[in-house]
Amino acid sequence: MRSRVFELAALLLTYPDEELLAAGDELRAAADRIEPEAVREQFIAFLDWLAATPAIEAQRHYVQTFDLRRRSGLYLTYYLHGDTRKRGMALLVLKQRYRAHGLRLVGGELPDLLPVVLEFAATAGPGDGEAPLRQHRQGLELLRAALTEDGTPYRHLLDAVCAVLPGLTDEDRAAIAALASDGPPVETVGLDSIGAGPDVTPYPTCSPAEASR
């Protein structure tokens, strides 16, 4: 079931704190129940790396991968909208969708954070639950490409997620290529007004050339 893929990926894409690292046996058991086999192997490859890596190194790797690299951040709306009014509206739409299903964000989390989007897909199910993943498929594919290029084990998790989503069309591929070439739009107004909060822009504004690196 796709929900198992999304649920496990959501968990493994969070910061590898002591609680997560201590749950190695449970995580492996969850991975062993994943179908199909090719997707299961992606999770096992990641978990093998996580189990063999000292905690401090795994934590440092997570920060370097997702927090310090603009092109591999976990905030999906940034890839498509950059720091613009459109991103603010996209965040608002996500918040409203979550609220309609009884999901409340805590701790200042933004609704486009990939683990949050995946958790929503796992709990709300096909249709409305998975709609944000389909709508932000371009961002997913750009993140996946960046992780693959960097050679990080986190690429296995994006491979697993994308493997169970609908296949890309030629139009999708053209749009992804264009976005990868041009980078996200740059504009830094209109975000606070929709109530997304002061931390809506997790990365500094950058030029298209920088964003595509």
In a nutshell, what does this entry contain?
The protein is an all-alpha fold and 213 residues long.
Feature tags:
mainly alpha; 213 residues; disordered C terminus; 13 helices; single chain
Structure notes:
- This protein has 213 residues and is an all-alpha fold.
- The longest helix is centred in the N-terminal third of the chain and has 16 residues, at 37-52.
- Helix 3 runs antiparallel to helix 4, helix 10 runs antiparallel to helix 11 and helix 10 (137-150) crosses helix 12.
- Helix content is 62%, strand content 0%.
- The radius of gyration is 17 Å and the shape is globular.
Low-confidence stretches: 188-213
Strand runs, count? 0
Averaged pLDDT, please?
87
Characterize the largest beta sheet: strand count, sense, and whether it forms a barrel.
none
What is the helix/strand order? HHHHHHHHHHHHH
State the share of residues found in helices, binned by percent.
55-70%
Number of helices: 13
| Range of strand content | under 5%
Quick one: overall form? globular
Note the gap between the termini.
35 Å
Q: Roughly how many Å is the radius of gyration?
A: 17 Å
**Based on helices, strands and strand pairing, what is the structural class?**
mainly alpha
